User: Fold this.
Amino acid sequence: KDPFFVEFGEGCERRQRNLRKLVDRAAKYGIRVYLYLNEPRPMPCAFFEKSDAYRACRGTLEWRGIVNAMCTRSPEVRRWLGDAVEQVFRAAPGLGGVLTISGSENLTHCLAHGPKSVYENDPSGYCKPEKFCRRCEKLTMDESVADLNRVIADGVRRADPAARVIVWDWGWKEPGRTELGTVTSAIARLKGSGVSFMTVSERDKPIDVGGVAVRLNEYALSQVGPSELSLAKWRAATAAGLPTVAKAQVASSWEMSVVPYVPVMDNVAEHAFNLMKAGVKGSMLSWSCGCYPAPNLEVFTGVRTTDRSAADVLDRVAVA
Assistant:
């Protein structure tokens, strides 16, 4: 609950109580629970018309004209977001941490769907540059996402300094800059924040299938990661002192998402071995397709620093 945004937090006591039970139950098996944060969510335009104080928190208008961003440069939004995260972690001691996404379908900050230049150059006419947030119109994507994630990380740390904050770079791109340029700038701004940096392992990997040349957008079991772009991002994160995390699918992917797992253990082993060689410290092994407890998972988690090749991993798992 919040003293300023009085509408928020209705029923939070019950939800926090249930979260606490889940955290305690998972702890019995050595499992830590992480929260996925896609915050702050945009609010209906009418929400901001309730008072002058709320109008002061209004950010960029989403292109369909239905919702506005909660401007993360607004003092009250920043205070509420940090306090809300802190409250949840105090209510459920033992939470492992959070995974953030700050460039998704939801307008989680004023630049989440691009800077003002996107609105100015939109041929459809839906994006109105005059509806872009005045506070944020001169910001770059890296400034906005780094600032937002620092607010979240600070709230988590106030409640539990040991909890992890994993920052995912999905959607960190803007016109006129390479994805690597935007991401490395954001990483530099996150230096000293204590967050971990995560990117999709196969992101932008070039492939040629049947003479059709494309670049991977995300997960692929038929293609072995990581990509050169992802390796460059992790090198930048390591140089900034941020722990690195790979996001991958190892059981199934959109290539064959209707089965529990695709038996391509050789590719999985090679991918895991490549990540180990690259010094990547963590991994998230599922998203929309899930991660069935298949031999693929056993192979991926079976990699050791003593392995000389992916074949070593396969041989050990096969014998076991």
The two ends are 51 Å apart (CA to CA). Residues 141-159 form the longest helix (19 residues). The chain is about 35% helix and 15% strand.
